Every structure is written in C-alpha cells, then in structure tokens.
Amino acid sequence: MGLRHRGPQHPAAEAGRAARAAVPDQRATGDALPLMFRFRAGPLRTAAALAVGFIVLRVVYRVLFGGVGGGDVVLIDLPLLYLPPPFAHVTLLGPITLGGLGSAALSAVPIAAAILAFGVVASVIDMSRVFARGARGGPLSGLARALVIAWSTLPQLTDAVRSVRTARALRGERGVASLVVPVFERTIERAVAVAAAMEVRGFAAGHPREGACERPVVLRDVSIGFEGGGGAGVAEPDEESRYPGAPDVILRDVDLERMPGTLTLVVGPTGSGKSTLLHSLSGLHTHVDDGWATGPIRVGGLDRIAVPPRDTSGFVGVVMQRPAMGFATESVDDEIAFALDVRGVSPTIVAARVAGVAEQVGIRHLLGRSLRALSAGEASLVAVASAVVQRPSLLLVDEPLADLDSAARTRVVALLDRLAHEAGVCVIVVEHRAAEFTSVADEVLAITDGTLRPVGAARDESADAGADPPMRAVPARRVASDLRELARRAPSLEVVGLSVAHGTSVPVTDAELAVDAGEIVAIHGPNGAGKSSLLEAIARPRRGGQVIVGGTDAAGLSRHTLRARVALVPDDSDDLLFCLTVDEECRRNDRTSRLPRGTTAGVLATLLPDLAAAPARSEALATLLPDLADAPARSEALATLLPDLADAPARSEALATLTTRIPIRTLATRTTRIPIRTLATRTTRITIRTLAARTSPTPAAPTPLTPASRTSSTPTHASLSGSRTAPRLSAWVRDRHPRDLSVGQRRCLVLAIQLAAAPAVLLVDEPTRGLDPVATSLVASALRRAADVGAAVVIATHDAEFAVAVADRRIRMQDGRLATSEAVVT
Prior knowledge:
- It is a multi-pass membrane protein.
- One of its GO terms (cellular component) is ATP-binding cassette (ABC) transporter complex.
- With 826 residues, this protein is α/β, with parallel strands linked by helices.
- Helices cover 41% and strands 16% of the residues.
- The chain is globular and about 90 Å long.
C-alpha cells in the first residue's frame, strides 16, 4: 500500500525515543512519598457513615434476636417470643433497657473503629499510587493488579446502582430485582475495562520493551477473528456485532505498513472490525479479548502475538472507546499520571508532564477534578491526555471525537496532527466523523466485507470514503408545521424557570423552553454546558421550576402517568436494557407500561424493518415503497429507482455508491420468495427507504396528515407502529441478548421501549453517540417517526449535521443557560 509521509528521517521521533529511554533512569525514591499523601474528605465521610450504620444495624439485630435487657431502667417492655422446635433456642424481642442498648452499641465499636480507620488511611494516602508503585514487578504484582481493579470498581458499583435506579424509574420499573442483572453487567464490564486499560498502560510489566521507531506497524497477509464465532452472533469487545451465522473471521488478508510521522484514518460501518484492528495492534485482541490472529503482526519490530501489551506500553499509546469505563484512579491528575507512576518516574517529572499535556489537550482547568464529575466529552479528553503523556511512537485512537463538542474536536484533531507531523508519531485513528480529518490525514483506509483497502490520501480525496454522505432532510418539518397548524393549542412541553443544582454546582439556570407537538428541537453546546442535566430534570421534575406537559404541571402527575407522557433516552442508553433477550425486554416493557402484548416489539420492527419477521416485511415495504410490494413489478421499480441496478455490469459500481446498509440477500428475500440460503452472503447493504429518498424525484415520506385523518396531536400505538397490525420481530432477533445487537440497533431498541407508550414528549441525549452513518440514519428515522405522529422531540447533541438534518429549531446552551432558539434552514 502506498503511503505519503513527510520526510524519511523524522528527527523528532528519534528525540522522543531518546527522551523515553531516559525516563526510567530518573526514578523516585523519597520524593515519591509526598504525592502519596494528601487529604481527601470523601473517603473519611463514607467510612464514618458506614461505621455509624454498622453500629445501628448491630443494635437493631440485638433488639430482634436476644433482646437488650440488663437489669437497668426498662425503656420499652416488648414481649419475649420463643420460636417452635427446631428453633426453640432462638428468642425474639424482649425488654429494651438503657444499659442493654449501650452494651449492644459497644459490642459494635471494634468493627466500626476498623472501618473508620480504613477510611482515615484512604483519605490521607493515595491508594491507587500505592498499588501502582507495588506493581513494578515481584511476587505482589498480581495482588496489586487485583487491588487496583477492586479499588476502581467499588465506586463504579455505587454509580452503577445509581444509574440503574434512574433507568428503572425512566422505564417505570419497581422492585429491587430489576437492579440485579444491569448492576452485575455494569460491574463486570467496568472490571474488564479497567483491566484492559491497565494492560495497555504497563501495569505489572515484567519485561518492558523498546520498539523500533522506524517501522511502527507491519502486517503481512494477516487474518483476525474470535474463538467460537459461528452463528453465535457474539458481540465484539468494541461493542460491534456481527450478523447471524457470521464466521469468526473479522478481517482477512490484511497487509498494512505504517511509517513514523503519518496520520492514518480507518473508516467503515459499525461491526466491520475497525476497533478489532486497533486491538490487534495494541495486543488486547490476542492477550485480553480471547481473539486469534494468523500471520505476522509486528509493532515496533516486535511480535505482537508473543509480546503482551503491558510490555510495549512505553512506546504504544491507546485511546479506547468509552474511556471513562477504564479509568483506574479517582482524579484527573492521577489518571493522566497513572502510566508514569507505574513505570516509577520521578514525581517531579510526572507533575511537569501532566501539566504540559493538560495544556496541550486544553484540559488544564480540569486538573484536580474528580473523574466521576466529568462529562463524557471531558472524560474523552482526559483519555487522550493519558495516552500521549508517555510520548509514544505509535498512537492508536478509537473514535476520539464521539463525545466532543466542535471546539474540543478541533483541538484533538490539531493535537493528533502535531503529534504525527511534528513529533514524528505514527498515529492511527478510527473515526466515524471522517470529514474532521480530511485536512490532516495522510491516507484513508476503509474496511468493507472484512477487507482493509486503501482509499487514498485524505488531502486529495474525500475523507468520507467508506462512510455515508450527509443525510438528506426529509419532510419532517413540513409535517411538524401541519401538526402545529392543526393543533392551535398550548405547546406539548413548557419549561418555566427550571434550575438544577448538584451540591455547589448549578448545571442548569432558569431554563425556559417551549416545544410544539410534532416539532424536533436540538439543544447544542460545549461539553459540560448542562444539556444532559436539563433533559433529566424535564423527565424527572423536582424543585426549582416548572415542567408543563400538555397543559398539566408534571410535578402533580403520578410516576406511571409521567412516564407515559414524558420519555427520556439517556446518553448511555444501554442503562435501560435489563433483560437477557430482546423478546424479554419487549414483553417486560409491555407489562410495566400496561400495553397490549406485542406493542413494543411492533414499534421496534417498524423502526428497524431489517429485524422484522418475513410475513411483516411486505407490509413494511408496501408502506415505504408500494411498487416493491408487488413482486412482478420489482424489476421495473428497481430500474426506476436505480437504473444502474438493471444493468448487471454496472451493479458493483452502483452498489459502491449506496450508503445505508441492509443485506442485499435480505432485500431479495423481501421482494421475492427465493430462499435466503440460495443467495450469496454479502455485507453490502442498502436501506430501501433511503434509496428511494435519494434517487426518486419525490422523497419517500409519511402520508400527509389532514384534519380528517387526525384530530389530536397525541401519538397512538397504531401510528407509531405504522399499521393496524404491528409487525413481528424475526425469531433470531427475539432470542438475542440486547448487547449482541449493533450499537444502532440497541439505540433503536431503547427508543422502541420509550416510544411504545406513545409519550407526548420524547427526550434523547446524544442520539448519535458512537454511531456510524447507517446507525445514525436509523435513529434519525425513529425520531422523525415520533415527531410525525405528534410527539414533541427534544435532543441534546454535538452533531451539528444531524441537528440540521432532523431538527426544526436549534438552541445553544452554555454555562447552564439556554440562548434564543434559531430555526433550521435547509
């Protein structure tokens, strides 16, 4: 593969290599101690609360079993109860005396004191640094690894319970049982992510290696896959899934060679294997993710399959998807410094490095902040800083722009550009927002059908190669205008003087907002502006303002009524998935929302026609493209929509220009009765509705609403599913674990769960987060359908293009305040 780069020598790379080689010699001795001691009130408060709680529980236990008498003044004379055999030796209750209470409390003091002592130690000693220093080898390195994972996972367990409780309220769930599965999954996911993050940052490295900067990456005829693939449809570690019956080979015949001082962009649809490629280069694929690879993979001249990631962490930097899940410390400073602490670098050098890289990335104001207080975008910036602080010669970055606002995206792109073209680092980036890298990437590589192919130099060709072109706006605004014209009533949603406070932080101040039925409003702004807090406050109103839904103050509505009228899809939408199969999710939502059986599944099948069972496909196609519902007419219809498809020699070229995907074999199955097994398995995909919208003179659109067909602006189950008889999901989808679906499919599943009750208001936080253009178009269609049937839709997003494509108005939010709205003009 050809590659353009700036100059053959890259002296900056050699200088960086020399600097890295010098760092381990500057070890800390006594000066390491000051950084390990610092006072933090949080652990002490937590320990004090636990100690008091233990004493109270001990006293209650003694009151219930054995009594707390003792010959003193009787405070409460409870009857003494004896249990029947074989528990006759157990007594319940009995007199409660002052001396007995004191004795019970004193019996709990030793354990309470131990809890408090541990809290004191944790509040003055930075345990993560202690564990990191203890992981530099020796017999205790394995124990140190386990302690770091446990120490990092414990706060996440509390956060997981809090997040799942919020999600449970958003779904209308009750009872503790609904917490078990999601909390367990979140905790395991967190532990695995922390272990992977520590691995790539050199924790417990036994034999650190120095790579050859002149040849950072060399792959020759490499195939990459997972064990036990087959038809299991197992999700990849980067949360991308494969289609049913897929082989376990993710990438095949990969030839790749990268040089220092270059920035390479890798594009491709969700599930194509982009993150798997990065994991193969970092070593996580074969050493952590239980994957396999055939053929030589050499990173810095070393055999990647033989050398674990921790031994190459000195010259390989990694930024993974959802980086906050892998944070191993408590503060921004400690997280950036973690890899240097593991290597035993002097605290003086560590402090200077942390300050310098924070300045580069633009997060100096975050130093000293707790990681748990960061927004998703701020966490992404911290992850970038943590990866570059070691000055690697190879930097692997997985979707760095997914959670960033436009200013932060510009900073990160500029930083990666400088690292590659000034510092001589070999940078490989996986990103759906390919256009952001058009001016800085040296080459674009696209993954299609399991094959890595060069597209060209980004400066000469479109960086959108392998991805979809911008979405075309559909007539959602016209339909919304019709709805507002028909309604002529108060807005579906009114927010009056809404403020939100979290301790001393006030993320939302005096918010004023009005949204009509059928309208889509996009709220945009920088990271940390308060967008997520605003949506959550609307969905779960408390104090500090008014939220009026359909003319009724939401504060006076019951939990069930509020949930039926206002639905929120949070930024981490997977929190709303509680069950082990898609079918269980749908049926459970029908029960908790008191809906007819099959309602949620019908909405999902409508949002994702690919997942509908065969009998429902004809009806779905008839709704979208009536011509294709008639099998004998399909040739004429296809020839009208895409003339090139009628010409066999031109078919490949025509398909290459299509941008949204469903399996070609599935399209054939929908329009003919040819058995699916007789068709070749292809991963090139098209969406018939998008195809019609992009090739026919009149874009496919819902039937225009008229006063005769609609008398109310309230959505209905039938209108959301698109037909009187809701389509059914295919069997293979019903039995799949929700997390085995693709990212876009999971987002649509959560949307179906929240839309099934036909809410008057739909709130969606970062709807395109981590989605490729295909999944983005699926989510856009779901939002349009909700608006088309009368819901007031509010989205919080950093994706300006998405907002222009789907929204009627945009409102900027900054420092917790909403600015004047502006109409979207297309």
